[in-house]
Write a structure and sequence with these properties.
elongated; 282 residues; 72% helix; mainly alpha
């Protein structure tokens, strides 16, 4: 219990500074790298920990935006620019989860209503995972086509000379007066949360690009796999179908916090089980 409390405790200022410096490496070559370094410098000295190393490694694998809900719960500052990205990927993930949750709950209840062996329920869950995942991937490829490629001119696109001066140089390249640029950076140093919106308004290049096709596909498949993978093991028990539905209901509450959706899953599962029992008796 104490270990869990330590993991969920808010990050200290030194931990936040270290994490921002690690995340800035993921934005190398963009103005966002300077932004994260600027906020990290305002937080003071950096100190790494197991949590910051783990979060930095996860961000390297998944990206910063998918981890934003976790980072917000740990009270990490300076990452509000990724909010739109996180919202879009979260919506796609929840859509994939909703489809998988309803199908898994109905399928588990159907197999239980016909009094089939647990191995049959496991096999059905595997079919749902593989066939449904293939259909999801095919639909994601059609719905999120690759971004158009730009023509290759043979010249390497390099950052401008103003990028070497950090955010101050980038602001001045936008014809912003030196005094105003200094005030924007000073406000960012005093309060990163309050100073970030006016800085982004003055320098739109700080806004992250839209999620890539790969990120959107990954969000779709993650939402599909999340409820089904544990059911491959749970459905192997005699009453594992109830555990699978309970697992789906728990995840649905965490992702939606909507009682109506929970009642929908429970109601459809109960109705499917009842109809299957009646059909089995007849």
């Amino acid at each position: 219990m104490r270990l869990l409390q330590n993991l969920l405790a808010p990050l200290s200022r030194p931990e936040q500074a270290h994490l921002l410096r690690a995340l800035s490496d993921l934005e190398s070559g963009s103005p966002r790298q300077w932004l994260l370094l600027e906020i990290a410098a305002a937080l003071g000295s950096a100190q790494h920990s197991r949590r910051t190393r783990l979060l930095a490694r996860l961000a390297g694998w998944l990206g910063i935006a998918p981890l934003l809900p976790v980072l917000n719960s740990l009270q990490q500052v300076g990452l509000d620019i990724y909010r739109d990205q996180a919202r879009m990927q979260g919506q796609i993930l929840r859509q994939g989860f909703d489809d998988a949750a309803l199908l898994l709950a109905c399928l588990s209840a159907l197999m239980a209503g016909f009094d089939l062996l647990p191995a049959s329920s496991q096999f059905a869950a595997w079919l749902l995972l593989l066939l449904g995942g293939a259909i999801k991937l095919w639909r994601a490829r059609r719905h999120y086509p690759p971004a158009p490629t730009t023509a290759v001119t043979g010249e390497e696109v390099l950052p401008g000379a103003e990028a070497a001066l950090g955010l101050h140089g980038l602001l001045m390249s936008k014809d912003i007066a030196t005094r105003q640029a200094s005030e924007l950076l000073a406000e960012l140093a005093r309060d990163p949360q309050a100073g970030l919106p006016p800085l982004v308004a003055a320098l739109p290049e700080l806004t992250p690009p839209a999620p890539s096709q790969r990120e959107l596909r990954r969000a779709t498949l993650t939402g599909w796999l999340l409820p089904i993978v544990p059911a491959l093991w749970l459905n192997g028990w005699n009453w594992g179908w109830l555990l699978s539905i309970g697992w789906v209901l728990g995840l649905a509450w965490l992702l939606h916090r909507n009682r109506k959706f929970l009642l929908l899953i429970a109601g459809i599962s109960a109705l499917t089980w009842l109809l299957a029992c009646l059909a089995h008796l007849l």
